[in-house]
Write a structure and sequence with these properties.
There is one protein chain. The chain contains 15 helices and 30 strands. The chain has an eight-stranded parallel sheet with strand order 9-8-7-6-5-2-1-10. Strands 18, 20, 23, 25, 28 and 30 form a six-stranded antiparallel sheet that branches. Strand 12 and strand 13 form a beta hairpin. Helix 9 packs parallel to helix 10 and helix 12 packs parallel to helix 14. It is globular and about 75 Å long. It binds alpha-D-galactopyranose.
Length: 639
């Protein structure tokens, strides 16, 4: 469409679909109006999930230069760096104080001797130069508030910031521009993790504040209550850091890791601000904690894509339930992280790593699954509390499947062509990515036996069910969730709950705390039901609340979009009608009539030849209820 007519066309479309036309000069943008383009920032880094090593799970605050450089050397010597493990990240514990007068941060040179400079100053430049010379990248840690997590949770640490109240304010708050310039321009770091304890645990009445003489910070995050969390304020603070990082890195070669532990509705906005965002509280080396962290990210498949990843936290392979005596568990943890495009950050003292663990991190085929350039997070094809089957689309027409036994009983699993979205009558081959061996081809289904807590992971080849295209639920990395229709964030109840890591069973048990329930899902409704319209179930499609907008990039130059659309049978709002719209580069291509609960699915198809961005919009047409309408784009595909 010629540019001149675009505005006129938008108005005509607005009139056609019942949106009030802008009366004044500066109308508030209707978030459901098609953007006409892919609106996520095209990031240069983290096109695949970040990989490397972090000091935290291995050493907590007792990090030092020998330990970090020892890990770096091992990454290089073992070949892990060649596989992509290049970020070497210092977590909490590195700082000494913020210098009074000019506010410059000083490094604890007792543990980072190469940082020592004359006159009491310090610089990480020799350290980052060393890492860069090894072909590695350097990461550092800070906090969005004034004080860091260790200053509340690791009070016995020998490496806590020292000095007056002001000197111990080592976090970014009030110093964003200065600190980011220091970390990136002067010290040469490439990666920054920004924690959030400073805006969470230093409330005026918190005992830790009085006991340690900290300046109080009225919390912006209440981890137990999304309603008491100031989501916009948290987002704005992180956006300020992102803007400073952009200024300090004109080449775009940096990574920003958001660490709000799944709180502050970061699921919704993390992708606009950072390259990865934590989806849960900290992982610990316990099987059930791993389940918890995995669950917090595994249902967020549409929120991750190249340059923007769900982060269920760093790997704990090598410790506790995942140590060298528990290789089944360790392999499961690793395979699951690979499947859901989690960052692969090793958290082990690599200097004395046994071969059995190196073989896990170093499994090139599984790393390849994680690093597949398509960036499609695995989709859950089968889910119970006992067994899950996850399927991930890979480049070159291949797929990966992980069959995961969550429990302590052996399991027999039927893996079907249908779950893999492969043709039922054609042979399917599975190559075991742990052993490298191929199994005999099967058609229709095969049976797999799993030991307790085992995860089998295979590369899959077979004829596709949709021969000439892709279901959108197979390519979540090409879909940007611009609006997911959630009006009031709700906590996600499907995350595994474990016995409290610090509190034991003294409290009332772990309650869900991560907002995200009701978000867009692949092959399921937003509330984890089977997709179903007018009594007919669909195993493929997108489940999303009405008042939503998805952007789909048509990188493979498909020619047609197709779906069967309708109000999902699981909706609690059975009163309101919804219309479905398909746009191509901002132009209306197809729309449904208003559909009601119980009405048969409508066929929606559109010619998308030459279209770069397809947008899928749902709008509620009536207002009989405040409840959201659950809608289904069944069999949604581009071909
Ligand atoms: C928080 C983060 C952890 C780690 C510690 C450091 O708990 O979630 O990943 O960075 O702080 O104190």
């Amino acid at each position: 469409m010629p540019l001149l007519t675009r505005a006129a066309a938008t108005l005509a479309i607005a009139a056609a679909i019942g949106v009030a036309s802008p009366a004044c000069a500066e109308p508030k943008r209707d978030p459901l109006t098609p953007a006409g383009r892919w609106t996520l920032p095209e990031r240069k880094t983290a096109r695949t999930p970040p990989m490397g090593w972090s000091s935290w799970n291995a050493f907590r605050t007792e990090v030092d230069e020998d330990k970090v450089l020892g890990a770096a050397q091992k990454l290089v010597d073992s070949g892990l760096a060649r596989l992509g493990y290049v970020y070497v990240n210092i977590d909490d514990g590195w700082w000494l104080k913020r210098r009074t007068g000019d506010g410059r941060l000083l490094i604890r040179t007792r543990i980072f001797p190469s940082a020592e400079r004359k006159g009491g100053d310090s610089s990480f430049r020799p350290f980052t130069d060393r890492l860069h010379a090894m072909g590695l990248k350097a990461g550092l840690y800070s906090d969005i508030g004034r004080n860091a997590c260790s200053q509340a949770y690791d009070l016995h640490s020998p490496n806590l910031p020292e000095g007056s109240t002001a000197e111990r304010e080592v976090g970014l708050h009030g110093h964003v521009e200065q600190d980011v310039a220091l970390f990136f321009r002067e010290w040469g770091f490439d990666y920054l993790k920004v924690d959030a304890c400073g805006i969470n645990v230093y409330a005026p009445d918190a005992p830790v504040v009085a006991q340690n003489g900290y300046r109080p910070f009225a919390p912006l995050i209440d981890q137990a209550s999304i309603n008491r969390t100031d989501v916009d304020a948290v987002k704005a603070l992180y956006a300020e850091v992102a803007a400073a990082l952009d200024r300090a890195n004109s080449d775009g070669d940096y990574i920003l890791s958001l660490c709000t532990w799944g709180s502050a509705d970061v699921r919704r906005w993390g992708k606009q601000i950072g390259h990865l965002w934590r989806t849960s509280q900290d992982i610990t080396p316990n099987w059930t904690r791993m389940l918890h962290n995995f669950d917090s990210a595994a249902t967020r498949e549409f929120y991750a894509k190249p340059g923007a990843w769900n982060d269920p936290d760093m790997l704990f392979v090598g410790h506790g339930d995942f140590d060298e005596k528990h290789l089944t568990e360790a392999r499961s943890h690793f395979a699951l992280w690979a499947m859901i495009n989690a960052p692969l950050l090793i958290g082990y003292d690599l200097r004395d790593a046994p071969q059995s663990l190196l073989a896990i991190w170093g499994n090139a085929a599984i790393v390849g699954v994680n690093q597949d350039p398509g960036g499609h997070q695995a989709v859950i094809a089968y889910a119970t509390d006992d067994v899950q089957i996850l399927v991930k689309t890979l480049a070159g027409g291949r797929k990966a499947v992980a069959v995961f036994n969550r429990g302590l009983a052996a399991a027999e699993v039927n893996l079907t062509a249908k779950q893999l979205k492969l043709a039922e009558g054609s042979p399917i081959t599975l190559r075991d990515l742990w052993s490298g061996t191929a199994r005999a081809p099967f058609t229709g289904e095969t049976t797999l036996k799993l030991a307790p807590r085992e995860t089998l992971i295979f590369e899959v080849r077979g004829e596709r069910r949709l021969k000439d295209g892709m279901y959108l639920s197979e390519i979540p990395g090409d879909v940007n969730v611009a609006e997911d229709g959630i009006v009031a964030p709700e906590v996600d109840p499907v995350v595994h709950r474990m016995i409290g890591q610090w509190s034991g069973t003294r409290d009332t048990g772990e309650r869900p705390v991560y907002a995200g329930w009701g978000g867009v899902r692949a092959d399921a409704t937003p509330y984890d039901q089977t997709l179903q319209i007018a009594g007919k179930p669909y195993d493929t499609g997108i489940g999303i609340l009405a008042q939503s907008r998805l952007e789909v990039r048509n990188t493979a130059r498909h020619r047609r979009f197709e779906a069967l659309v309708g109000v999902d049978d699981s909706t609690r709002n059975t009163r309101d009608r919804v219309r479905f719209f398909v746009y191509g580069d901002g132009r209306l291509l197809a729309s449904s009539t208003p559909v009601a609960f119980g009405a048969a699915a409508q066929n929606l198809s559109a010619d998308i030849r030459g279209v770069r961005t397809v947008e899928l919009v749902t709008r509620t047409q009536t207002h009989g209820s405040d409840l959201p309408v659950v809608t289904t784009w069944a069999n949604a595909a581009v071909r």
